[in-house]
Design goal:
The chain is mostly beta strands and 726 residues long. 5% of the residues lie in helices and 54% in strands. The protein starts with a strand and ends in a 12-residue tail after the last strand.
């Protein structure tokens, strides 16, 4: 499955502008009528096309006959954009008084190899929607996302309800099997730091990025070291306007801006957050446990330079620091004071260009470093110091030689270092230094106009265990009318997690074979998809004795995903339904036999409903309902291993976005509004009581509800403030 996050519908375009606050200031008291008709090359009407004024909150959709009409308060020379699935985007720059009785002809996108991206169990045709085609505003305003990218992705089919850490769990895989990339460069630590039993958030706002391709298995051979999913994020190529602004939330304050030149721009943003007032207001019963509340500082910077139309140089930098001091109360055992501090840095620079022959070139370098210092990490008087760094270097090139064939190839190297210093009764100081080198070759064949094939292979060498592997992949897609039938088979691998490599650095690479088949249907603004998958795991780490691991585990994950989205049933309404069934078994870590892992929920379903009325109410309301079946757990009181099941999980979330003024946006969000105390597992006492029973306590979120209020204010003169300042 692939989630391509680009601008899709008129409402998404309008809301993106609204929330990003990059629209020109509206002129009060003056209106102009914009009207016309949208047709194709055969002069047939194009229904439901998106028509809008660039960098404004004004626009509409064409009706069944292709006609459109709306009022605007904009004046002067502006850009009118028209977009529709399956057609090339249209842009008209003209004085607003001349934009009436227009005839706009859209060019249909031909089905050639350049318009095909082979990923995730299906070919996604450029210009068409993927099954969850969301803009950044959809991510930020979907109830339950709380403006966080990862939380929004958990509402998609294939994703499971997250645990108490909030990390992605995709198609039976654990959270380490999902990798994140920014501008095709690997991100070492995408999740922000948090206290125990608090769900982590992404370090990066969804508004930082112009494109997001979320691949749930069957992904391109370009990507390495992942067994379940990859999340490539793409920053914007240019910023045309200088701007500055402020954001104020109930947990943070931030500010930043952009300085734009003719061919370059420099953007920056800084935020400070303090959870003290939030904790005192919503969770006063926890005040005594916080000696120092969670506090964080963050800084983001991006420089962009485009000397030519098809040449882009970008550098992206982020730094954040998180600290807190909290009294930890375990289910059984002695309380301890946890003093936590983390510094995280990420920097990448990329260069893209297209030569005169049509060859596309890419080169990039990324450096990441994460340092943690935790006193009271596991025991009252222990001390944990962790240092991890990664250097990623990558180059690739590609070209479509004919209408029938396209070639892409690349090479990369990742140098990784990890050192842990754990001081307790014993002193444990493992250190890992190694590198991963890979190269890939991808061939796209346009066999027929509606029959597409991709054959690719990746060769990868891991120095830590002196292993080399060939990882082939093949994908095929057939388009019949409004249906696309697709299938993928491929081999993937990933090093074992560092916490196991610290005890046995020679552990083999974990591998799996993936098979996927799907049917995708789209007509007008209705989308339906069903996809089945099977993953066969080998060489999983298993515990042989106390703190020693061997690569003797195995398992499988199989299931089916369903998705439906409709924006035509009722005016102003948009609803999405998704369902995932997963059957996963592993002989893994301390599991003595093949069982369902403790983090897997077999049934997952979500319904999201959104009502948007910018014309009258100037607002948008979103409601999401989530369901997940119980998680397995082991009861030591005589039951079969991992035979227990926690109660079912339910959450109901709501959000409200208000365009209060042309310079002010208000955002409100509340999660788990019915305050259901969902249980994610149980902690059992290691010692039985007098009756020989092992007592237990429920594992739940420390703060089962979240409440956010945000104000986004422009300080610019000609353009409004962008929420990300980028």
């Amino acid at each position: 499955m692939k989630c391509v996050i680009h601008n899709k519908q008129m409402n998404s375009k309008m809301l993106f502008t609204m929330l990003s606050l990059i629209s020109p200031l509206l002129v009060v008291g003056q209106t102009t009528i914009i009207s016309g008709r949208v047709i194709d090359a055969r002069h047939n009407p194009v229904s439901y096309a998106n028509i809008y004024i660039v960098n404004s909150v004004e626009g509409t959709s064409s009706d069944d006959d292709g006609n459109f009409r709306f009022e605007t308060s904009s004046t002067g020379v502006k850009q009118l954009a028209v977009s529709m699935i399956g057609y090339e985007d249209y842009l008209l720059e003209e004085d607003m008084t001349k934009m009436h009785a227009l005839t706009i002809m859209l060019k249909e996108i031909p089905l050639h190899l350049d318009e095909v991206v082979v990923q995730v169990g299906s070919f996604i045709i450029k210009g068409t929607s993927s099954i969850e085609n969301k803009g950044s505003v959809d991510v930020a305003t979907t109830a339950g996302s709380e403006g966080d990218l990862f939380k929004a992705l958990t509402l998609l089919p294939g994703a499971q309800a997250t645990g108490t850490d909030g990390r992605l769990l995709i198609r039976g895989g654990n959270s380490s099997e999902s990798q994140t990339y920014i501008d095709d460069m690997h991100v070492l630590s995408p999740y922000g730091a948090t206290s125990p039993h608090q769900q982590a958030r992404s370090r990066y706002s969804p508004f930082f990025f112009s494109g997001v391709n979320f691949s749930m298995g069957g992904f391109s051979s370009e990507y390495s070291q992942s067994l379940s999913s990859v999340l490539p994020l793409y920053t914007r190529d240019e910023a045309k306007e200088s701007k500055v602004g402020l954001s104020l939330m109930n947990v943070s304050v931030g500010g930043g801006g952009t300085k734009a030149w003719k061919k370059a721009s420099l953007s920056f943003n800084s935020d400070y957050g303090n959870m003290d007032s939030y904790n005192r207001l919503f969770y006063p019963e926890q005040n005594n446990s916080w000696k120092e509340p969670v506090r964080f500082w963050s800084l983001q910077k991006q420089f962009r330079y485009s000397p030519k139309e098809n040449t882009h140089f970008k550098t992206f930098f982020t730094f954040d620091r998180t600290i807190f001091n909290q009294i930890q109360t375990p289910s059984y055992g002695e309380n301890r004071e946890m003093d936590f501090a983390e510094n995280n840095l990420y920097l990448n620079s990329t260069f893209r260009t297209r030569g005169r022959t049509g060859m596309k070139y890419f080169a990039g370098i990324a450096y990441a470093r994460n340092r943690r210092h935790i006193a009271g990490a596991q025991l009252p008087d222990d001390l944990l110091k962790e240092q991890e760094s990664e250097l990623h270097v990558k180059a690739k090139a590609g070209k479509r030689f004919t209408d029938l064939y396209k070639l892409e190839f690349g090479v990369e190297s990742v140098v990784k270092q990890y050192r842990m210093d754990y001081q307790s009764n014993d002193h444990f100081t493992p250190e890992l230094k190694h590198h991963i080198t890979g190269l890939y070759l991808s061939n796209d064949f346009n066999i027929l106009d509606n029959l597409l094939l991709n054959a690719s292979v990746r060769g990868e060498k891991t120095s830590l265990n002196d292993d080399f592997a060939l990882l082939p992949r093949i994908a095929v897609s057939y388009k019949l009318s409004d249906f696309v039938f697709s299938g993928v088979a491929g081999r993937y691998q990933q090093l074992s997690d560092k916490e196991y490599l610290a005890y046995n650095p020679t552990l083999s690479n974990v591998r799996n074979l993936q098979y996927q088949a799907g049917i995708y249907y789209q007509k007008k603004q209705k989308i339906f998809r069903v996809e089945a998958y099977y993953k066969d795991y080998e060489k999983l780490p298993v515990m042989s004795d106390q703190q020693h691991y061997l690569s003797e585990g195995y398992g499988y994950s199989r299931g089916i995903d369903l998705f439906f989205n409709d924006q035509l049933l009722l005016n102003h309404w948009d609803y999405t339904v998704s369902y995932t069934f997963n059957d996963s078994r592993r002989k893994y870590l301390h599991y003595p036999t093949l069982v369902q892992p403790h983090y897997v929920t077999r049934h997952n379903a979500s319904v999201s409903i959104r009502y948007t009325n910018l014309e009258v109410l100037r607002s948008m309301i979103s409601i999401s309902q989530r369901y997940a079946s119980g998680r397995p757990y082991h009861n030591p009181n005589g039951e079969l291993y991992m035979s227990g099941r926690t109660p079912e999980l339910y959450t109901t979330d709501i959000s409200l976005t208000i365009l209060a003024h042309r310079k002010l946006i208000i955002y409100l969000s509340a999660s788990n509004i019915f305050h259901r105390l969902n249980i994610y597992g149980y902690d059992y006492n290691t010692q039985p009581n007098r009756e020989g029973i092992y007592e237990r306590k429920s594992i739940m979120l420390a703060q089962p509800q979240n409440f956010y209020v945000g104000f986004f204010l422009t300080l610019g003169r000609n353009v409004a403030y962008e929420a990300t300042h980028f």
